[in-house]
Amino acid sequence: MQKIDFRSDTSTHPTKAMREAIYSAKLGDDMLSEDPTVNELEDLAAKLLGKEDALLVSSGTMGNLVSILSHSQRGDEIIIGNKSHIFRGENSGASTLGGISIHVIPNQENGELKPDDIISAIKTPQSINYPSTSMVSIENTQNACGGAVLSTEYSDNIGKLAKDNNIKLHLDGARIFNASVYLGIPVSKLTSSADSITFCLSKGLSCPIGSIICGDKEFISRAKYWRKTLGGAMRQLGIVAASGIVALNSMIDRLKDDHTNAQILAKGLKEIPGIEISPEKLPTNLVFFDLLVPNPQLISDELNKIGIKGGKPDKRWRFVTHSDISSEDIYFALNSLSGIMKKNYKSN
Q1: Is 310 left (phi over 0), alpha (psi -120 to 50) or beta?
Q2: Full-model pTM
Q3: Could you list the pLDDT tens digit for every one of the 348 residues in the chain?
Q4: Which of 140, 199, 264, 269 is a good FRET partner for 344, with 20 to 30 A between their CA atoms?
Q5: Surface-to-core class of residue 289, CB atoms within 10 Å of its CB (0-12 exposed, 13-18 middle, 19+ buried)
């Protein structure tokens, strides 16, 4: 049976080149900064993103949390969007483990945080009634806003705002390479104003595990301390880093194929009665749409029977394109979903 997994780009499997690199990786003790493969990956990542240094961590959630802890003191406050992954999907780790307050402001439809909202949320160290603001975080691409892409101009403006107000800017760039490919610019142009960046190796870049934090050397030194504190320091980590090197050297440009497939999927979904979608608002590889049926779980169950994963009980669905999904898979999924919807959707 054909298997098509739209649930996330984290479902990607390592390529043949990655598996070969993992098998032959030169290893050392990363706790002592002696793993040559990890060192090579971190140097490559820092260079690509235009930063002084980098650190390999196990996940994007760990990368964001380590960054927050490295920028903040216990009792500080951070500013994030109400649709940010840090707020919606990371178990409030900053509060639970760091004693850090979270000030949530609205994300706009295009993924941005309004500068005026950020300024209004900033609290100065002089106040005896409120926590001091340590950082603001933006997300690019913005997952819950349809994979929205933040521009270099916007990112630079928020970087300047943060600097002018003596706070740090953290960029949750889990899919930052999708943004750079969409805009057709080097990723470093999107990260130049950020004090820290986290990006995932295990999403569209197709590695089995891992994320990278980038920043200046002082920040990365603190980040190493917090990675260790969180239990994230590992030994012969080159078996993880090896696939990351392959990814950064060969998997970035192909992300445009995922964007193309996402548009084929979105435009095809728009033609199916009982589905609401706006393809023009979906620039990258995240395809959000609504099912106008009383029982979306029934549709999901029917898709599961033929090997298509991605449905859920709610009417709002997200399908994600990635390297393990071909254009042929897209057309098969569209034809299958069209047939299932014909049987279950009744227009008014």
Answers
A1: left
A2: 0.96
A3: 679 999 999 999 999 999 999 999 999 999 999 999 999 999 999 999 999 999 999 999 999 999 999 999 999 999 999 999 999 999 999 999 999 999 999 999 999 999 999 999 999 877 788 899 999 999 999 999 999 999 999 999 999 999 999 999 999 999 999 999 999 999 999 999 999 999 999 999 999 999 999 999 999 999 999 999 999 999 999 999 999 999 999 999 999 999 999 999 999 999 999 999 999 999 999 999 999 999 999 999 999 999 999 999 999 999 999 999 999 999 999 999 999 999 887 775
A4: 264
A5: buried
